[in-house]
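Please review the protein record below. Let me know how this chain folds according to its tokens.
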Amino acid sequence: MQAKRRRSSAATIALMPTWIAAIFIYIGTMVWSVRLSFTDSTIFPSSNYVGFAQYAKLFRTSRWLASLENVLIFGVLYVAGCLALGFVLAASLDRKVRFEAVFRTIFLYPYAMSFVVTGLIWQWILNPTLGIQASVRALGWQSFAFDWIVSRDMAIYTVVFAGVWQGAGLVMVIALSGMRGIGDEQWKAAQIDGIPIWRIYLSIILPQLGPALAASGMLLSMGVIKTYDLVVALTGGGPGNATEVPAKFIMDNLFERQNLGLASAGATVLVLSVVMAVVPFRYALSMRARRR
């Protein structure tokens, strides 16, 4: 008993710096930011409270509203695209193809890159004067046009392409590990019944991957809320506000416009968005565990 208490005390002491950092650095700065969102702080923090004036100003700002619309479009298409493409890639590799390790590495490699690198790569690919459009026109198709990156209506979809290209590999790995955990008996029974392979994956395999795909979706959703570097590297938020996202709006108001109060209000809204996304997922997991 004493030895167990010593080990427990040693573990507590070892974790103490982490707890201190979590409480005073992360939670402390979060509370401080929320406090600043109720003040008229500009370049320096202020103690002059203005209530919800910063939040009212925030939701009257067309740039902020455009950023919310853009992140909603990007989030839905990005998560759905990564889940769909990742599942297809996992199903393809699950057939035990030759050079599986090589293909798995190729598909997962984009996820190892930073969003800045991904944005720069796709900025070159989609650049009308250097990338796909210029290459196709050099082959003789002078009427070919693929200038989405400079179109206000289509620019947000270029960000989706770049994000899916990077994030699908994560879903592939998680889904593939789930597929490999399904017993061969189900495959044999389905094949005896003459069920096509594509139907096996959709009707038998996919329902069993629910927890794995839900975890993947949650990880991807968390990345959507804090999307910043991909947009800055790929489009810079343009053309106009076509690809503006909340994180960029906050950073611009914090460092360029020196509006600390408005930036803190935007950051608080993002924190609440994260909480609203995580709480239902955690509640569903707890209910699932209780049923088990």
Q: What stands out?
A: The mean pLDDT is 85. DSSP finds 13 helices and no strands in the chain.
